[in-house]
Amino acid sequence: MTSAGNKTGSSVDRVYDRLKRMAADFELKPDERINESALSSLLGASRTPLREALNRLVAEGFLTFKNGRGFFCRSLSPGRILDLYEARQAIECEALQRSVSRASDAEIQAVMAFLDETEPSYNTIDVAMSLLEMDEAFHMKLVALSKNAELVRLLSNINGRIRYVRLVDLKMLRGKTLPSRNKGAKLSAHRVILNALAARDEVAAVTAMREHIERRREEATEAVRIAYSQLYVPAD
Amino acid sequence: MTSAGNKTGSSVDRVYDRLKRMAADFELKPDERINESALSSLLGASRTPLREALNRLVAEGFLTFKNGRGFFCRSLSPGRILDLYEARQAIECEALQRSVSRASDAEIQAVMAFLDETEPSYNTIDVAMSLLEMDEAFHMKLVALSKNAELVRLLSNINGRIRYVRLVDLKMLRGKTLPSRNKGAKLSAHRVILNALAARDEVAAVTAMREHIERRREEATEAVRIAYSQLYVPAD
DNA sequence: GCATATATTGCTGTATACAATTCTGAATAT
DNA sequence: ATATTCAGAATTGTATACAGCAATATATGC
Fold first, then answer.
1. What pLDDT does residue B68 have?
2. How confident is the model at residue B53 (pLDDT cuts 50, 70, 90)?
3. For a designed S-S bond to B73, which of A55, B18, B28, B84 qualifies (C-beta 3.0 to 4.6 A apart)?
4. Tell me, in Å, how far CA of B68 is from C1' of C20?
């Protein structure tokens, strides 16, 4: 969320990126205490930079910390997921409202082009991860149209924290709704939102966005359950 | 934002709280590099816990960090303030919408009672700081009614980051609008919002909230300028 | 056999040391 | 006068050491 590409390879940043991934992918099991010595030797850095990275992740909501006990990976209860999806709604809808008056036609067209380019591969791509990345990229581009760096920052953070659940969510979605996804037949939710924005129709855009996220949120609780079951019964 | 009362007095928490205050109050001048050794001796802790606290504050958006160069206090440009106020709108409005269906009458009444208790002293209290604390407390209580821990967390973070500007803002407000603040004459913005919530009128509540924050936001840019002038020309 | 007290072990919390990097400023060349 | 280079100083980045706390295992009394 804070750092993107670190060519210098500062130890803290390296560890931070890696840890965030581990936390997002539930490689660190929820509510399990993190052993600093073990982790530091695993990641090839000493405890000092490791702890600095851990502190960042606590501040960002990925981990928790109990004084004298150490760091823990944060558990994702259905309640928390719901909270995060609501926060996401708040942020994305606000951004969309601002974009109506702030985004230029050209900028909107650029996102449209991104959609044109990526959406066809929704059906061909098999790796759910790539699918998730495209989905996230779309939402990030959309929020960026608001020209509000803080909203971008917040969405980026939330995305990171619900990544694993969304991954499971998307997998489920694929299994269930693939047939109805014939191109041309019905516009994708993303397309509907973007079209409304291009038409400068604030109400329609926000309504579509709310519904889009709402639908995902409804599936999310189910996704959490599945995520947990996958956690403790590794797929064969 | 993360830690509230630390009786154990872990060094990093102590330093963290203190630093956050310093950053919020612009005791650390914007864009100025933070000297770790100097700070550590000033705060009476070694560099290790200091840097852990600094890293937390970077993740929370209070500071920035450049690899190999160190930590910097984040500058508050008018643009950034605007961003933060917009984020605040997003969060508080979303929370309010959820509260309409989630907050019990009793809970709303409790906030009402808080308002009854604190509002009269708006005119008597002279210390702007206390005023700000009451204002923040009200908004936090309001958001808490949404039962969404993430929204609470986000508002708490934003409040911390715009505290100094709001302080200046409130001071200005006092100077200008004190006469029109006769109790009974007109309902306070807070009261209007809460009444709408009590009546379960979502549209009215959200509208009032948007306007309330919007008005503050408009003053904010002005407040930033004043804040900066106060920064570099200490009041005599 | 159970509960309480006590030792043991492992881990966290912090300080300190040292290596690596960046900054400063003066001396030199253009 | 301006730009450049190159030590020296200052500051950051990381490793390591050790003190102190927490959890667990062991022993003791009942």
1. 92
2. very high
3. B28
4. 10
